[in-house]
Amino acid sequence: MATIQDPKALGTANLAQQEYLSIPISVFQLDHLAHVDLYCKFEGIASPVLYRSAAIPITLRDIEELRDKGHRALYVLSSDYAQLDRSLNESLHDILADSSIAPAERFAILQTAAAMEMDLAFHMIKCDRYVTLSQRIADQITHLLDGENLIPQQLFSVVRHDYYTYTHMINVAGFATLFADLLGIGDPQTRDQITKGALLHDIGKRFIPAKILCKAEALTEDEWQLIKAHPQRGYEDLCHRSDLTTEQLLMVYSHHERCDGEGYPVGLVREEIHPWARLLAIVDVFDAITSARPYRKPMTVSQGLSYLESQSGSHFDPEMVQCWTSAMRQN
Ligand SMILES: [Fe+2]
User: Fold this and answer.
1) What is the Å distance from ligand 1's center to 230 Cα?
2) Domain HD-GYP: where (predicted)?
3) Rounded distance from Cα 266 to ligand 1 centre (Å)
4) 103: Cβ–Cβ under 8 A, 6 or more apart, which residues?
5) 203: CA distance to ligand 1 center in Å?
């Protein structure tokens, strides 16, 4: 039975193919949420086990107990997800405006609420719906995070790390928003553009079969060339649009460039790479390496930050690495 931990089930595979989906635990403290069976993962047990049936709703006390034991997420069957998602979206506007819920937790709730819609839009032949959706979600993210002085670690601790494409895109967008703020980049409108660019950055992966993105074995040369083409494909998908700026398109096109010129698609060096793409490269890699991937376990935060530092000046802009790693280490 495939579970969310199954490498074959990760990547851009459609939600409907999953057996279980992880949901941030803060979602379950909300009123008016559909009652569905809830599962919990325990150390040493591969599959989630039933924690509460739909007939016995979870309480705030249960949630506190689970948090105290280190649980960040509960699991629901993918067949129940649509029902949960519908009830969540019905009250999403009120939830996002509810200042009694911490901004990072509202972000995690938004991530959950947006997952199904993003997944559907991402796999459509035309990108229009995904771009429109990205604009709406970017507005919600910037509204939530701007001016909150959130420490990135707070966001990291509540979001999902299971590396579906949409999970990754929303994580990267949240991190990029905080990072732009830390770097003192621009006004809220500019940061909103960065958030939207981050939500779009991997749109070129729509053209790569999920079986290649999820492949646990080494890629063939042809498969690797296909993956390396995704920044160019994404750029071509979006470049005709009048609602995107050149800088946003460069985030899509240049997010796999490296400061030492060894990146793709062009092999640009440091200042030739747009600063928004340099910023994006750091949070893109950071989220990827701290998430479960088909071919390896997630790094811890500490390991992830050490990796970024090991690549400072070669892959990444050194001043930006310094800024992100010191911010992530704040408690
Ligand atoms: Fe990418």
Assistant:
1) 7
2) 143-331
3) 14
4) 144, 145, 148, 150
5) 8
As a whole number, the mean pLDDT across the chain is 88
Backbone angles phi, psi at 260, to 5 degrees: -85, 5
CA 128 to ligand 1 centroid distance, Å: 19
3-state DSSP helix/strand/coil % of the chain, to nearest 5: 55, 10, 35
- Cα 311 from Cα 273, distance rounded (Å): 16
pLDDT tops 90 at residue 261 = yes
Q: How far apart are the CA of 15 and the centre of ligand 1, in A?
A: 21
Residue 23 has pLDDT above 70, yes or no: yes
What domains are defined for the chain? 100-328 (1.10.3210.10)
Over residues 154-176, the mean pLDDT reads: 85
Cα(90)–Cα(43) distance, integer angstroms: 34
Distance (Å) from CA 289 to ligand 1 centroid:
13
Around ion ligand 1, which residues have CB less than 5 A away? 202
Between the CA of 280 and the centroid of ligand 1 the distance, in Å, is: 10
* Ligand 1 centroid – CA 325 distance (Å): 21
Residue 11 has pLDDT above 50, yes or no: no
How sure is the predictor about 4, in pLDDT bands with cuts at 50, 70 and 90? very low
State mean pLDDT over 150-170: 82
